[in-house]
Amino acid sequence: MLETPHATPSAPELDCFALAKQLSGLHFIGGRYVPALSGKNFAVVNPATGAEVAQAAEGDAADVDAAVRDAARAQKEWAKVPARKRGALVHQCAAVIREHQEELARLIALETGKALRTESRVEAGTVADILEFFGGLGSELKGESVPFAPNVLSVTVREPLGVVGAIIPWNVPMLLMTLKVAPALVAGNSVVVKSAEEAPLAVLRICELMNRVLPAGVFNMVSGMGPECGAPLVEHPLVRKVTFTGSVETGKIVAKAASQKLIPVTLELGGKSPMIVFQDCDFAKTVSGALTSMRFTRQGQSCTAASRIYVERPIFQQFVDEMKKAVDAMVMGDPLDEKTDIGTIISEGQFEKVQGFIDEGKKTAGATAHECSAMPKDSALKKGLFIRPVIFTGLDGNSRLVREEIFGPVTVIQPFDDAEKVLAEANDSEYGLAASLWTNNLKVGLDLAHRLEAGLVQINQNLVVQANLSYGGVKSSGLGKEASLEAMLEHFTHKKTIMVNMA
Ligand code: NAI
Ligand code: MG
C-alpha cells in the first residue's frame, strides 16, 4: 500500500513514470517498436498534475500505410493458423497481461487520471478476462450445411475479413480496445489500432506484451491525432473493416468514409442512460447502485453513466439526501494513491466542456447544484483536472444537462409520479445505449425493460460491459454489438457459401 502519492514501488517496472518515458515516441508495427516516420511526437500529460509524462509518436498517413501493409502480409499467414490455435494464443496473451496487471494499472492511472484502486486495476483485470473469453471461442467459428439438393453438398464457412482498423477513445482504452482486438484476432483478422491521443501508453504496452505471444504483424498500433492518423486508417484501401468507439460526431465521419469503400463498420457511440427508481426498491442497494451507475469513480466519463435519474416522488427527497451523503464520502485525490476513490478529468478540453454544463445548470432558474465530495488538498495536485461530483435537482427534460452527453461527474435527479410518463421521458432521447430500473415489482420492471429503447437494460444492478453479454446501442448510440460470440461472428467474419455438385 502506498503511503505517499507517487512513491516509487520496489519493482522497477511498477514505476509508471519510468515506464511512460520508455514508451515515448513509439508505434508498434510488424512486431517491433518504431518511431513516427516524420520524427514528430506529441506530449502525454498526467491530468492530476499537468506535468508531461511522455511523448507519443505523432502518426500520419505514412505510418498508417506501413502498419496496414505489415498487417495485410501477416494476416495471410494468420488466417491459415487453425482457429482453435489462434484462440489458444489469444488466451495465452491473457496470462502475460495478468503478470503485468499492476504495471498496466499504474500506467493507465498515470495517463488518464483514473484512480488506481477503484478503476485502473479493475480495467487491467478485465482485459485479461476478455482475452480469455474470446480465446476460448476459436471452435465456434463454424458454418452450416444447407439442404439445397440431394446431390449437392452446400455448406457455409466463416472467413476473416482481412485487416481491421480499430479506433479507440481514452475513457477505458484498454478494455474497449480488447473488445475489438480479441474477437478480430481469434476470427483470423489482423488489426491496426489507432490509440486515443490522451491515453496512448497503456494500450501500447499491451500491444507489445501480446506481441510476445502473437506472430509479428497481426496486432499493430499507431498513435496520433484523429484527422491525421485515424482518418487515413479508415480510408486505407487494405483496411476491410472499421470498428470505432467514441463520439457520435466522429462516428458519423468514420461511417461516411467507410461507406465510400463499402466496408462494414461497428460504432459504439455515446449515451444518456436513464436510471428509473421506484419507491418499492431496496433503498440502500439502490443508492449505492446509483453511485456505480453514474460511474463516479470514473468521474462519470462513461457512455453508460446514469446521468439522468428519475425517482418516484415519495422517496425523491430522501434519495437525493442519501445519494449526496454517499458521494460526499468518496475521496477525490491522487489517482495513484490507494485511498483515492475519484481521480481527474482526462484533459483540459473535457474539463472545460464539463464545467460549461455545470455552469449552465447552476444558472438555470429553479435548479440546485449539490456539489459533493471535497477537492484534494495536496499542493502537488493544484493543477489537477479535478471536478467535484454534482447532483442537480430542479432541472427538467428541456435542459441540455438532461438531453446531452456530459461525460463528467454530473447527474440530474428528477421526481416522477407515473410509470408511463417516466418511460416516455426515458425514451425521449437521441441516445439508446443503456438503462436501469430499480424495483422489487419484477412485473413492472420486465414490462418497462421491454419497452425501453436501449441496447442494455438492467434491473436492480447497473454493471459495465461484460464479456459474453451482447453490448451496443440503438439510435445515435451506435451500430452493431460487441463483447459476445455473436459480435465476433457477425462483425469480424463473413459467411462464404461453398457448393459441390456430386451428381
Ligand atoms: P472522439 O470521438 O473525437 O475521439 C475518439 C477517437 O476517434 C480518438 O482516437 C480520436 O483520435 C479519433 N478520431 C477523431 N477524429 C477522427 C477522424 N476524423 N477520423 C478517424 N478517427 C478520428 O471523442 P473525443 O473528442 O475524445 O471526446 C468527445 C466526446 O465524445 C466526449 O465528451 C464524450 O461525450 C464522447 N465520447 C464517447 C465515448 C464512448 O465511450 N462512447 C468515448 C470518448 C468520448
Ligand atoms: Mg474529438
Automatic annotation (TrEMBL):
UniProt-listed SUPFAM superfamilies: ALDH-like
Active-site annotation: E268
Domain Aldehyde dehydrogenase: 38-498
PROSITE patterns: ALDEHYDE_DEHYDR_CYS, ALDEHYDE_DEHYDR_GLU
Gene3D superfamilies: Aldehyde Dehydrogenase, Chain A, domain 1 (3.40.605.10), Aldehyde Dehydrogenase, Chain A, domain 2 (3.40.309.10)
UniProt keyword list: Oxidoreductase
Homology family: Belongs to the aldehyde dehydrogenase family.
Protein name: Aldehyde dehydrogenase family protein
Source organism: Roseococcus pinisoli
Organism classification: Bacteria, Pseudomonadati, Pseudomonadota, Alphaproteobacteria, Acetobacterales
